[in-house]
């Protein structure tokens, strides 16, 4: 049981720094068996994301010239990095709240926020920006598994969830640069 929070924290941290698969995949897997536990794991994923976001924020502060390295993450191109820089310049920390709706990785906002947003406001805005998406996606998965897929076996719900994430990422990587 101790392993689940560790995985949630680590996944949140890694996705905020260098990994390209969102912790929502893990959280939605957990919600199939236990909705309350999945919500707590979202908090652990948030904690990891905040630590990872801090690392990227500090990296952006110390090495602003290294923004191009962000394009090494699959699904991130130079246009996206430049667009986030403009969004953060124009909207400040509020850009972090809009980013998840556009499918733009948090790490880009963390890097560019370091140039225009103070650290405390960055962390305070990051909390609802990350947690709201974690809980919304997890809640949606819980709702669908209980209503639409309620009469199916646990195994079929897991297969359906895996299929949905594969379709999502095929679409995401075909649309993103």
Apparent shape: globular
Order of helices and strands: HHHHHHHH
Give unreliable regions as ranges.
none
In whole angstroms, the N-to-C terminal distance is: 38 Å
The percent range for strand residues is: under 5%
Number of spatially distinct domains: 1
Strand runs, count: 0
User: Largest sheet, if any?
Assistant: none
List the helices and strands and how they pair.
Blueprint: H1 3-17, H2 24-31, H3 35-62, H4 78-91, H5 95-102, H6 106-116, H7 119-146, H8 154-175
Notable characteristics:
177 residues; mainly alpha
Q: Can you describe what's shown?
A:
With 177 residues, the protein is mostly helical. The chain has one domain (3-175). The protein contains 8 helices and no strands. Helix 2 (24-31) runs parallel beside helix 7 (119-146), helix 4 (78-91) packs across helix 6 and helix 5 packs parallel to helix 7. The protein is globular and about 55 Å long. The termini are far apart.
Short description:
This protein is mainly alpha-helical and 177 residues long. It has helices at 3-17, 24-31, 35-62, 78-91, 95-102, 106-116, 119-146, 154-175. The relative contact order is 0.15.
């Amino acid at each position: 049981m101790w392993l689940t929070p560790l995985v949630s924290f680590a996944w949140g941290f890694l996705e905020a720094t260098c990994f390209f698969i969102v912790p929502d995949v893990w959280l939605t897997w957990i919600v199939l068996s236990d909705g309350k536990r999945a919500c707590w794991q979202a908090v652990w994923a948030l904690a990891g994301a905040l630590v990872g976001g801090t690392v990227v924020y500090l990296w952006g502060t110390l090495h602003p010239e290294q923004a191009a390295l962000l394009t090494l993450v699959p699904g991130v191109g130079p246009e996206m990095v430049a667009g986030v820089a403009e969004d953060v310049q124009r909207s400040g920390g509020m850009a972090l709240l809009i980013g998840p709706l556009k499918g733009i990785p948090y790490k880009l906002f963390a890097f560019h926020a370091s140039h225009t947003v103070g650290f405390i406001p960055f962390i305070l805005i990051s909390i609802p920006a990350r947690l709201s998406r974690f809980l919304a996606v997890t809640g949606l998965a819980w709702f669908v598994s209980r209503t639409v897929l309620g009469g199916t076996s646990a195994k079929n719900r897991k297969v359906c969830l895996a299929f949905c994430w594969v379709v999502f990422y095929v679409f995401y990587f075909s649309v993103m640069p």
